[in-house]
## 1
Amino acid sequence: MDFRSDTVTKPTKEMREAMMNAEVGDDVYGEDPTVNRLEKLAAEILGKEDALFVTSGTQGNQVAILTHCQPGDEVILEAESHIFLYEAGAASALAGVQTRPIQGTRGAMDPSEVKKAIRGEDIHHPETGLICLENTHNKAGGKIIPIQTMKEIYEIAREKDVPVHLDGARLFNAAVASGIPVKEFSKYTDTVQICLSKGLSAPVGSILAGSKSFIQKARKWRKRLGGGLRQVGVLAAPGIVALEKMVDRLAEDHANARQFAEGLSAIPGITIDVDGVETNIILCDIRETGLSNEQFLTKLKEAGILAGPFDDGIIRFVTHREVTNEMVQTAIERIAQIIAGK
Ligand SMILES: Cc1ncc(COP(=O)(O)O)c(C=O)c1O
């Protein structure tokens, strides 16, 4: 029972068949019909003029930063965002930008704080090159950034002529859980990155979407990074299945996460903000059990349960297609036994 991440999902049978039967061509020449179909479909779903198939969420975010910014620019982002915490310093290493983290609440930056952080004209200051948002917010436990917050930040950004990029690795989770179409979220951004290889179960790939001229420049950045691939329709084909067939079922993952959180929160020593479980990520505070993260995870592993360490005393469980409701029930029972027996 693997609750470490939704990235562990394997391609479905339909995806494997689509891979086998994919029509392919040289994508660097723009001649792979399957990639072209995926990019067109993704652009339509996200409400953008054009889209680019990239190898990973990290590559999508970094190509966005490289395309939007100049070296020496400053990027405003949330203090616990993936781009700031988990992309190996790529924004500074590759794009030569400096980051300006703003502490959010439940992953959401306060629009007035964003406004204050945008640099004015001054010879001493860097230019504010970009504002990055993340929805759902991973480190905050899969929280949905309210659309109103996104709208307010976007309006401020437009006034100041600063572009907005959305790390929407799990944007479809936000859309399914809130009942608001992805387009409505991406409308308040200039560019958006979505992952096909997390809850949507494709084996590889992300999409970066934006205006035609932006994607044209982004395509060149992807090439510079070595991400111009050839007969890559075999990898785009499962991405099409992901977008067409795998979105609605995310609701099951959310229901399982809620049930898991309710069950775990009834176990003495485990604290969870059950109402804060808005999508497929559960953050669980185990400090009162007296066990360290390592001890807790080892005991779980012995009981056939994999989860991931987060901060000190915080464990992350993620639900996904390969986690059934039965597994959730079993996991709750086994964790209760572990804590009772310690
Ligand atoms: C919010 C968020 N953004 C970006 C990424 C990066 O995606 P990838 O692992 O495909 O590079 C992740 C991966 O977990 C993520 O959770």
## 2
Amino acid sequence: MDNRYSRQELFRQVGKKGQEKIQQKHVLIIGCGALGTANAESLVRAGVGKLTIVDRDYVEPSNLHRQQLFTEQDCFQQLPKAIAAKEHLSQINSNVDIQVFVMDGNYTNLLPILRDVDLVIDATDNFDIRYMMNDLVHQENVPWIFGSCVGSTGMSFTVLPGKTPCLQCILDATPVSGATCDSVGIIAPAVQMVVAHQQSEAIKILVEDFTALRSKLVTFDLWNNLYHTVDMTRSKKERCPTCGVNPSYPYLQYETQTKMEVLCGRNTVQIRAKRKVQLDELEQRLSRIGKVNKNPFLLSLEYATYRIVIFKDGRVLVHGTDSLELARNIYYQLVG
Ligand SMILES: [Zn+2]
């Protein structure tokens, strides 16, 4: 397959030199759902040297309409997403060194992986891990491409530690709703559009054409035909605890991490997140998937066989299970 990369090399900004660089680089993708599989396929086809994928989930039927690497067979076998992805990716390009971890990424287990990584791609589905990654890539000085999508909308921003504002600064300036794919759904083109933005930026970083990077936040709504880019250069805050002059990396501290515990004898899991929630917004969103009751202090939702109670300070009780794994999945599906 001598001419495997010929068309990519023919593209002047990549060239033979760029292709060689791509083949020497190591990319880490956090998450192997819709964004993760599409990003992974693109990188493997482009000939990245090494790819590491971290994901904690397994393949389910409701993934198939948008998570492009997976097949019905993966579903029947309930394969972990990272394992199924590796199988398909190796068939696409056997020259790529693919390493996968079936685990819930956190500070402790991601730090050693990050040591020889040239680029991190965000393909996660919740902001707890994104804020943690935001701190981690700044502490380790690794470029990171944020991406998120829900419904027919999406956004992406390229974070270069020491140069651009961080995710925290961006989101302080442009608040996003907490809507999730499990509450308002998603169409596959929204995924593809985010991935197109993430991957073009990724190739620029891998061939080291940093001047070509997009400095703006891009947001779009494919259904309503909206496309915006927003200049974020002024959003960088000198006092930001992540990208400011005296960083403290708050999301790498134990106290700020979301904690979960089984409440003994109550068939309930308690989740303590440090993020305050907007009960009105949550009520609106969650009433589409179950019966919601709300008072000024909390909101409760009947969801399948579970009852979920969400307090204003971010604390959540999941009644009807003593599985941390299950409760965590429900939590991220609903709260995002
Ligand atoms: Zn910042």
